Amino acid sequence: MNIHEYQAKQLLKEYGAPVADGRAVTRAEEAKTAAGALDGPLWVVKAQIHAGGRGKGKFKEASAGEKGGVRLAKSVEEAAEETARMLGRTLVTHQTGPAGKQVNRIYIEDGADIETELYLALLVDRDTSRISFIASTEGGMDIEEVAAHTPEKIVTFSVDPASGVSAFHGRKVAFALGLKGQAFKECVALVSKLYKLFVEKDVSLLEINPLIVMTDGHIRCLDCKMNFDSNSLYRQPEVFSLRDETEEDPKELEASKYDLNYIALDGEIGCMVNGAGLAMATMDIIKLYGSEPANFLDVGGGATKEKVTEAFKIITSDPQVKGILVNIFGGIMRCDVIAEGVIAAVKEVGLKVPLVVRLEGTNVDLGKKIIGESGLNVIAADNLSDAAEKIVKAVKG
């Protein structure tokens, strides 16, 4: 689960990390009051969306020379004007894709006199099963770009969970960032605070880009991206309350209500499969035969007729879908349950695109019989290769 920058900074503040004072607003008329509560003389006005690259992004239908989603204001009035210009518009960045995201929140915060921009992140390293730190002197840039062109400027190390974080780790980060004096001491303390936050809140990624050294020698978390382990949210009610459903794909949101593993993609063939591995293999073979999958959808091993019905409805709600491939290998999941769910869904929402069904495993003969006697215009397939070839051919005409 992702959260907004202003929410991440509130969590940082709770753990004693240095952040600027700021206010989040959802209406333009709130902006002047919010900006007036800050000291100035410089205000930073930031669009709040779940995507990076906001400062370099562009608004749809932008006028010539218009700035991106991060703007500077030199007065309360100017901060309010910039807020009004951004709210309700669609911001496109390299992470949103061409569709962009609508800006429904603006964060106004005090500006800073920046001397140096640095990069600091914590993440779960699955190779070592530990929390790792990533530090670089190249702050303000995409870390992927730094890794590709100047990898020597990135320092990475993991923390042994048995001993936990210590001042040694803080000093290692501070040395890697080339800090001195007051900034060095503050960085050592910050590392411990970030690690504590990461563990206690079940964070999966905490990225501060940039971490700045100001002209007065102090450090500050100027921007922050925070992701959380969705499997832990049952024990993190405070974190779960920060969820912004308007930032999520409506289809993925609906799927989560039925405990379906669904991820929307950009292709044209909808997939309904049981098992993550089989789902990935299904997407691969669709590409092999010359088309693209419209989604990843794993209905799981214990899906009910109702769950399958909802999965089918979610697939058909995607206007990009020009064909559907149902690929089920019945182990725990029974083929007759899938067949009944597909029939129920088609009767409820209709079938306007080609449908190929491949069933194998438990109760496969009964499943095929149910579909065969349903009167639906369904294309049967004998195996995965046959199914992929048939659905791609049906879609491509």
From TrEMBL:
Binding sites annotated in the UniProt record for substrate: 274, 331-333
Positions of Mg(2+) binding: 209, 223
Gene Ontology molecular function terms on file: ATP binding; magnesium ion binding; malate-CoA ligase activity; succinate-CoA ligase (ADP-forming) activity; succinate-CoA ligase (GDP-forming) activity
Keyword Translocase in annotation: no
Matching SUPFAM superfamilies: Glutathione synthetase ATP-binding domain-like, Succinyl-CoA synthetase domains
GO CC terms of this entry: cytosol; succinate-CoA ligase complex
EC class (word): ligase
Chain residues that bind ATP: 46, 53-55, 109, 112, 117
ATP-grasp domain span: 9-239
Keyword Metal-binding: yes
Highest taxon of the lineage: Bacteria
UniProt subunit comment: Heterotetramer of two alpha and two beta subunits.
The protein's role, per its UniProt record: Succinyl-CoA synthetase functions in the citric acid cycle (TCA), coupling the hydrolysis of succinyl-CoA to the synthesis of either ATP or GTP and thus represents the only step of substrate-level phosphorylation in the TCA. The beta subunit provides nucleotide specificity of the enzyme and binds the substrate succinate, while the binding sites for coenzyme A and phosphate are found in the alpha subunit.
The name this protein goes by in its record: Succinate--CoA ligase [ADP-forming] subunit beta
Species of origin: Albimonas pacifica
Name of the gene encoding the protein in the UniProt record: sucC
